[in-house]
Design a protein that fits this description.
Elements lengths: L32 E3 L23 E4 L5 E6 L6 E5 L12 E3 L5 E3 L3 E5 L6 E2 L2 E5 L5 E6 L2 E6 L4 E6 L16 E3 L5 E8 L4 E8 L4 E4 L6 E7 L5 E7 L13 E4 L15 E5 L4 E6 L6 E2 L5 E3 L2 E5 L5 E4 L5 E5 L5 E7 L4 E6 L5 E6 L3 E7 L15 E4 L15 E4 L4 E4 L5 E6 L2 E7 L6 E7 L4 E8 L6 E4 L2 E4 L2 E4 L4 E5 L12 E3 L14 E5 L10
Antiparallel strand pairs: 1-12, 2-43, 3-4, 4-7, 5-6, 7-8, 9-10, 10-11, 11-12, 13-14, 14-15, 15-16, 17-18, 18-21, 19-20, 21-22, 23-24, 24-25, 25-26, 27-28, 28-29, 29-30, 31-32, 32-33, 34-35, 35-36, 36-37, 38-39, 39-40, 40-41, 42-43
Length: 534
């Protein structure tokens, strides 16, 4: 398969200026690195969270009164990337952008802009991605691939024009990928006149580089895996389509190109052209190249594999395999805990007993659970994972009460109220309790560390979706401050982005078929009551 190019449901999961008179993105291309603008202090993990009111100041406006298509924003609101159509490029006498079904747009040409402060923003050619912390952005300007540091306002050339692969086609992997802590960047570089690709890992704190060898075959793509410990290479080993040349496959799809893509309602795929790739893996800190097709999932530094009898074994850097879960368990994986190098499994051959197995643990948790319909191999990081205990045999149906597995302490925390766990952050939990006799829903707050449990209030019947940033969670129509454990108020049902100050962007409803007009600004996510008349 090629890289998954399907964006998250919200424009914010991708991580969406008075004009910048001396913007870092206006630096000359010959300058490898040069500071511009006034450096801003780097946020620290120990900085206290701002209070839930007062902090919800408005920020902006960003952009001009022309069609505005949001792309990404920093979670702390320090930057916004959007595309605007500011010129009548189709000559019809009006400025207008209409949305198609597949992320495509019609009307005037959209151009990407970076907004670091209120105003018109800074134009560039393409926005590729931002690191998970929101500090770094990768953009294309004057044909050059650039790394922009939004803390220091510095701009560094990563690759000269023509020295990096194009990534605008649907399904094409980006030439850059970040580690989850934002400290390392993997880059695909095209070398020499024959444009042979190689992968280089850049340590962003000191700028040092190391090549991660991909082997003798022709490199098509390289992606740093989500935990930052592995690189997955796509290579071409043979002319599988018999046309006399090696060509990286392209997806035939109705999905629009990535640059300035609009909202996606649907799209289809109908085959590929080019040669069949092979995927291999290599540890960032060294070790052999290993095939990706015979492994189940990565678990920290281990390759997890399923044996012929159903046993689960982990392979270390030396190639030695250690059995983690015996075949007698009949394991169905519930969750992959990469941080602690362990698996949460239901032993289907033992009454669906819940167990933890890994590099340093083999522990029964003393609970039988409803096994998942299919194994969850996503490995999304979390401390608490909810499971549903099995119903007693022959017993009368009872309201659903889930149990939380603390993957750090390897202990269980029964949820005290009937309902479904909708969100966890560390030891804090939001549970939605549904009425048995009506459509009413109630939100509860739990903290497994302190034992606190509290009913927060009712949820609006039409509320949907979850967005989170820092201590703020927009959940099913209300905004919750996890720091205080209370509901701050209702949110607009079209909310698609939330920042750590409890604000959202007035960027228009993505379900509309015409791009809204700018400018936009950060506004309080909570519908504040108007001030009383004097």
């Amino acid at each position: 398969m090629l890289a998954d190019d399907v964006p998250p449901p919200s424009a914010s999961t991708a991580m969406h200026i008075r004009a910048l008179l001396a913007s870092a993105l206006l630096l000359p291309a010959c300058s490898a690195q040069k500071a511009s603008l006034t450096p801003t202090p780097e946020p620290t993990s120990t900085s206290p969270a701002a209070p839930p009111t007062g902090l919800q100041r408005e920020g902006g406006p960003f952009g001009t009164p022309h069609p505005f298509v949001f792309q990404a924003a920093a979670r702390d609101g320090r930057w916004v990337v959007a595309c605007q159509a500011r010129e009548d490029t189709n000559g019809d006498g009006k400025l207008e952008v209409l949305y198609g079904m597949h992320g495509d747009t019609r009307g005037d040409e959209l151009v990407p802009y970076l907004f670091l402060e209120p105003g018109a923003g800074e134009r560039f050619e393409d926005f590729l991605t931002a690191d998970p912390t929101g500090r770094y952005l990768v953009v294309v300007r004057d044909g050059s691939l650039r790394l922009f540091d939004s803390y220091k306002r510095t701009d560094t050339e990563l690759a000269a024009p023509g020295a990096f692969p194009d990534s605008n086609a649907p399904g094409t992997a980006l030439p850059v990928s970040f580690s989850p802590d934002g400290k390392r960047l993997l880059q695909v570089v095209l070398n020499g006149p024959d444009k042979k690709a190689s992968a280089v890992l850049i340590h962003l704190e000191d700028g040092s580089r190391q090549e991660i060898p991909h082997g003798p075959d022709e490199l098509g793509q390289a992606v740093l895996q989500p935990d930052g410990r592995w690189v997955k290479f796509g290579v071409l080993t043979q002319d599988s389509d018999g046309d006399g040349k090696l060509a990286w496959p392209q997806i035939n799809t109705s999905l629009s190109p990535r640059r300035c893509r609009g909202p996606i309602l649907s799209y289809s795929r109908y085959g590929i052209t080019g040669d069949k790739p092979t995927f291999v893996l290599r540890r960032v800190n060294g070790g052999p190249i290993v095939p990706a097709d015979d492994m189940l999932v990565l678990v920290g530094n281990f390759l997890l594999k399923r044996g012929a009898q159903g046993e689960l074994s982990a392979e270390d850097a030396s190639g030695q395999r250690t059995e983690w879960v015996p075949a007698s368990c009949g394991a169905r994986i519930i969750h992959v805990d990469t941080e602690h190098e362990q698996l949460l499994v239901a032993c289907t051959a033992q009454g669906n007993a819940l167990e933890l197995h890994g590099a340093r643990v083999h522990q029964s948790l003393g609970l039988s659970v409803e096994p998942p319909r299919r194994e969850d191999l996503s490995g999304e990081p979390t401390r608490l994972y909810p499971v549903t205990p099995s119903a007693p045999a022959g017993g009368a149906p009872s309201p659903l009460k889930q149990t939380l597995v603390d993957l750090e302490t390897r202990t269980l925390h029964p949820v005290p109220v009937p309902g479904e766990v909708h969100y966890t952050d560390g030891t804090r939990v939001l549970v939605v309790q549904s009425s048995e006799t009506s459509q009413a829903k109630t939100l509860w707050f739990l903290d497994t560390a302190t034992g606190e449990q509290r009913e927060l209030g009712s949820l609006p019947p039409e509320g949907y979706g979850i967005e989170a940033a820092g201590n703020f969670v927009s959940i099913l129509g209300v905004l919750v401050d996890l720091g205080t454990g209370r509901i701050l108020g209702p949110v607009d049902e079209s909310l698609e982005i939330l920042d750590t100050q409890g604000r959202t962007l007035s960027a228009g409803n993505k379900m509309g078929r015409q791009a809204p007009l700018g400018p936009v600004q950060w506004i309080p996510a909570v519908k504040l009551a108007p001030a009383p008349a004097k």
